[in-house]
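Page 37, continued from 36.
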């Protein structure tokens, strides 16, 4: 977390530049792509963290990997991090950008915990329900937890709605524990 402050400063600068050019949404998509790529590639993370690999080589790998896929502002971030010897901060900057972009656009993050992964159709229905409830759209993060057995747990900001089967079982258990029912033998 020692990189949190500088990463936030870089992210704010990139967002400001992207807003001036009207491409903040494209840059946000680029940042999501960077984070997803880093999460899925241990080799790329190792290369970026390696003190043996030259900063110039790290930049070349990033440009080769993301070159045609990302906006020129994102490519400029690669150059800026290279010049300031902060290539290791790329992941932190990308994550911070997403946070301040969502804040700037009034987009909340909704966490949906389900027993199985949600489909695109279900995600669309959840998005509509979130807009209906809160008045704002939200990015949906799906967490798969088979322990909830079925149903879902939706959390948007400080509000949580638990419609899981495991929660219903727990409520039944509490109800039976609190009742003074004495079974006849």
């Amino acid at each position: 977390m020692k990189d949190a402050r500088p990463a936030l400063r870089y992210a704010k600068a990139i967002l400001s530049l992207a807003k001036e050019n009207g491409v903040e949404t494209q840059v946000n998509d680029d940042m999501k792509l960077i984070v997803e790529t880093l999460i899925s590639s241990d080799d790329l993370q190792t290369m970026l963290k390696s003190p043996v690999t030259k900063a110039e080589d790290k930049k070349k790998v990033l440009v080769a990997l993301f070159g045609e896929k990302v906006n020129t502002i994102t490519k400029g971030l690669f150059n800026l991090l290279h010049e300031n010897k902060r290539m290791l901060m790329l992941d932190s900057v990308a994550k911070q950008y997403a946070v301040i972009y969502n804040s700037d656009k009034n987009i909340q993050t909704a966490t949906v915990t389900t027993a199985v992964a949600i489909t695109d159709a279900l995600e669309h229905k959840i998005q509509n329900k979130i807009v209906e409830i809160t008045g704002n759209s939200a990015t949906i993060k799906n967490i798969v937890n088979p322990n909830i057995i079925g149903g879902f747990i939706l959390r948007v900001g400080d509000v949580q709605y638990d419609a899981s089967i495991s929660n219903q079982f727990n409520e039944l258990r509490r109800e039976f524990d609190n009742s003074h029912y004495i079974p006849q033998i």
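The first strand starts at residue 108 and ends at 114. Flag for discussion at group meeting. The chain has two domains: 4-104, 108-178.
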